[in-house]
Amino acid sequence: MRGKKITVIGCGLLLMVVMTLSGAGAENFSSYVDEDGSISKPLDFRTDWVHLGSWIVPSENDKQYGFHDVYASQATIEAYQRTGQFPDGAAVIREIRSVETSTLSGGQTSWAGDVESWYLMIKDREERFEDHPSWGQGWGWARFMPDDSGQNLVEDYRQDCLGCHVPARKTDFVNIQGYPTLR
Amino acid sequence: MRGKKITVIGCGLLLMVVMTLSGAGAENFSSYVDEDGSISKPLDFRTDWVHLGSWIVPSENDKQYGFHDVYASQATIEAYQRTGQFPDGAAVIREIRSVETSTLSGGQTSWAGDVESWYLMIKDREERFEDHPSWGQGWGWARFMPDDSGQNLVEDYRQDCLGCHVPARKTDFVNIQGYPTLR
């Protein structure tokens, strides 16, 4: 009876060690990344994640036109507030919507209309996917459209993403000045 | 032994009944309202609550100038999504910040600067504080400044709040068109 107990405890410990080790590898570091580095879109982030902040580019002629709402998980925010850095596996999603504008009782007001697209960044502190065109500079980069294809449309993060993110290189490519929750 | 068990279960049931009844009374319906109807400001809502949506009134000459971030608890959102109504005790907070504007890589961009004030609404389905000047139309109304006084600055909700909220009367005085999480 006692031998059986020790075996069960031993197996439990072994399982914990194996799980910890595999968690640090390429396979399991994010729920939104498969073992080949393909990135998928989180669901329910508007209700389950924390709002970092919003910003607006009101002119349709500008590259980043839209009302931008940005979210990360509670664990990511807590780690950032403690260390000043995004932890490995951190996911930051930006939902871009059309800009609706009207003169209401409080003045000319703009708010977020329909979804146009999402941008997602996944923090990778171990350079897991070195030759993958969606990975580099310590992040995985993804873009999704509301067509339900679920496909990451970033073909080359250097061309598709860095143009706007390089100016924020000092803050790990995230424009934290726009995010009161991180300040 | 069996009698003891029944006594414990009986006490447990009694406690549950007492807790349920006291929860429905005037004293305990919201953590942010005392028994006299005084309203206090929630803490940590940016990290612990759900983002309903944001909107902006960019001109300093307009009454509601600022970048407005709006939040409610997860329980409030779930109840609203299920029933289409704000549940008794629901709290909706609006954080108003200055508008920062700059031409960035993606175009002319505006985001939320420093906190200027907060507006808080507490849903009251039982008209608990009939003669209180901060309560009416099914809500408690509050405004706070970042001076740490913690005092509700609404002296008469009719004069201080309804002007902007009456146009949203059909949606229980909340401009839900601006809140993607509720749509």
Outline the structure in words:
Two copies of one chain form a homodimer. Chain A is of the alpha+beta class and 183 residues long. Chain A has a single domain, classed as Chalcone isomerase. Helices cover 24% and strands 30% of the residues of chain A. Chain A contains five helices and six strands. Chain A has a six-stranded antiparallel sheet with strand order 1-2-3-4-6-5. The termini of chain A are far apart. Mean pLDDT of chain A is 89; it is low at 15-25. The interface between A and B is large, with 42 and 42 residues. β4 (107-123) of chain A pairs antiparallel with β1 (50-57) of chain B.
- Extract low-pLDDT stretches of chain A: 15-25
| Order of helical and strand elements of chain A | HHEEHEEEEHH
Number of helices of chain A: 5
How are the strands of the largest sheet of chain A arranged? 1-2-3-4-6-5
Please report the distance between the alpha carbons of the first and last residues of chain A. Answer: 57 Å
Mean pLDDT of chain A: 89
Give me the count of strands of chain A. 6
CATH topology of chain A: Chalcone isomerase
Strand content of chain A: 25-35%
What is the CA-based Rg of chain A, rounded? 20 Å
Domains of chain A (count)? 1
Give the CATH superfamily of chain A: Cytochrome P460
| Class computed from helices, strands and strand pairing of chain A | alpha+beta
General form of chain A = globular
Sheet with the most strands of chain A?
Answer: 6 strands, antiparallel
Multimeric organization: homodimer
How much helicity do the residues of chain A have? 10-25%
